[in-house]
């Protein structure tokens, strides 16, 4: 394949633009805000799950508290009723009087036990309320941070897209200055070799694979006309001769 030296040199400009597009694409895929937003979303979701679980426990404890308070009220009512009977003087039987006094004492002990239960349940309820308050605050904080990070991610993505648009336009302009057959070969090689289809020959070294060419290879390149498209024997990329190629007396671009 033949192409004017100037057209071959434009391949290096095109390669620089394509490499920049690759970098921009990588940046778009690996924005740190994307990973941070995912982490915050996961945390907010976990906090939501924990909050629902804590709220469910609060509801359960509230039912337990109402039940315990109801039990206390029932025992208190019964004890008050028995106390009034005792104080009325209507009971004349000694045995019945003794039984009533024993029942009042038993109800007193039962009431004390139930009141301890109520206190214990109330303490659990207070602790759970504090947990619900804390989880709700942490969830809101995570949601706020997630929203903030999403905004930063979108801003960064928009800036990258603006750069991609600019570089793409430059690429279209440069590609239009390269012969179609040379451009097709370059694009084919770029697809085969990690996005690099053309590389400069500088100081006897290929800029694509970074390997130094042998004396035999350099002499062969010297033998080619300036418009002959040459390729690296090692990586097979298009090798563009430059003023720093190290080819000695051969006319170089």
From TrEMBL:
Pfam families recorded: CT398_CC, Zn_ribbon_9
Region Disordered: start-end pairs: 62-88
Stored InterPro entries: CT398_CC_hairpin (IPR056003), Oxidative_Scav/Glycosyltrans (IPR052376), Zf-RING_7 (IPR003743)
Compositionally skewed regions (Basic and acidic residues) per UniProt: 62-87
Domain C4-type zinc ribbon: from-to ranges: 205-239
Domain CT398-like coiled coil hairpin, first and last residues per copy: 14-193
Superkingdom of the source species: Bacteria
Residue stretches spanning the membrane: none
PANTHER family, A to Z: PHOSPHOLIPASE C-BETA-2-RELATED (PTHR39082), SCAVENGER RECEPTOR CLASS A MEMBER 3 (PTHR39082:SF1)
Protein name per UniProt: C4-type zinc ribbon domain-containing protein
């Amino acid at each position: 394949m033949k192409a004017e030296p100037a057209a071959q040199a434009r391949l290096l400009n095109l390669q620089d633009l394509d490499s920049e597009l690759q970098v921009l694409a990588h940046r778009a895929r690996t924005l740190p805000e994307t990973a941070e937003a995912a982490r915050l979303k996961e945390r907010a979701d976990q906090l939501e799950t924990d909050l629902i679980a804590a709220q469910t426990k609060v509801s359960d404890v509230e039912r337990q508290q109402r039940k315990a308070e109801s039990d206390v009220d029932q025992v208190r009512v019964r004890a008050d009723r028995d106390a009034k009977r005792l104080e009325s003087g209507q009971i004349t039987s000694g045995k019945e009087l003794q039984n009533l006094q024993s029942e009042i004492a038993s109800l007193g002990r039962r009431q004390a036990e139930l009141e301890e239960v109520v206190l214990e349940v109330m303490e659990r309820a207070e602790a759970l309320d504090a947990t619900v308050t804390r989880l709700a605050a942490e969830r809101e904080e995570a949601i706020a941070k997630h929203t903030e990070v999403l905004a930063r991610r979108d801003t960064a993505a928009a800036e990258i897209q603006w750069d991609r648009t600019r570089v793409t336009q430059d690429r279209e302009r440069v590609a239009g200055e390269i012969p179609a057959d040379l451009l097709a070969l370059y694009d084919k090689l770029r697809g085969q070799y990690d996005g690099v289809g053309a590389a400069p020959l500088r100081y006897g070294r290929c800029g694509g694979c970074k390997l130094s060419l042998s004396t035999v290879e350099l002499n062969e390149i010297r033998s080619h006309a300036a418009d002959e498209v040459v390729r690296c024997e090692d990586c097979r990329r298009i090798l563009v001769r430059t003023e720093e190629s190290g080819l000695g007396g051969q006319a170089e671009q």
